[in-house]
Each structure stands twice: as C-alpha cells, then as structure tokens.
Design brief:
The chain is mainly β. The chain has a domain of 58 residues. 9% of the residues lie in helices and 34% in strands. It is built from one helix and six strands; from the N terminus they run βαβββββ. The strands form two sheets. A four-stranded antiparallel sheet has the order 1-6-5-4. A two-stranded antiparallel ribbon has the order 2-3. Strand 2 and strand 3 form a beta hairpin. The radius of gyration is 26 Å and the shape is elongated.
Length: 97
C-alpha cells in the first residue's frame, strides 16, 4: 500500500540555485520544460518537529548537495476510541430520589 507524505520546499534557495545555474536543474531538449533532480530521504523515525524525511538537490557536475525542504507523514496519529457510555439505569420504583 502506498503512503502519502506532505512537505515544504524552500523556494528562496531553489530560486538561488536556478539563477546560479546549479547542475541539478536542466532543460529538456524534447519538450523545453525545466526539471530538477532531487533526493528524498526517509528517516527511520521522525525528528523533534515531526519530520520524517528531507529533500535535497545534487549538482550532477560537482556532486554537491543542497538541502531544500522537509516532509511529514500525512497519516493522522492513531487515536484511542472514546469509552462507550451505558444508558442510565431505569428504576422500577416511583421514588423521586
């Protein structure tokens, strides 16, 4: 079964890398679109902020990495079910108390 993760990318750093001609960004000769090569690392356990992984890009020419974001598990935390309530006992006597 697949697993959905959500994340954020630092667009400031990504834009700086693109303007600098970083080797992780390339333009396709086939369709003219620009692509970025990235790595998604999934940790064994989440960190103190609830992140389960990180995103980085690597320069194919220098093999240097730049960190650009984090990811979190999108599955809601497991909750314990509320205790079942029992209906009030009806008394057979007619006493008001």
């Amino acid at each position: 079964m697949g697993k959905l993760v959500k994340g954020s990318i630092d667009l400031t750093t990504l834009g700086e890398l693109a303007r600098a001609g970083h080797g992780s960004i390339s333009k396709s000769e086939k369709n003219g679109k620009t692509y970025i090569n990235f790595s998604l690392w999934i940790n064994d356990k989440e960190d103190q902020y609830g992140n389960i992984g990180s995103l980085s890009v690597w320069d194919k020419n220098t093999n240097e990495k730049a960190y650009i974001g984090t990811v979190k598990d999108s599955q809601p935390p497991a909750t314990t079910p509320a205790p079942a309530t029992t209906p009030a006992q009806k008394s057979d006597d007619d006493l008001p108390f």
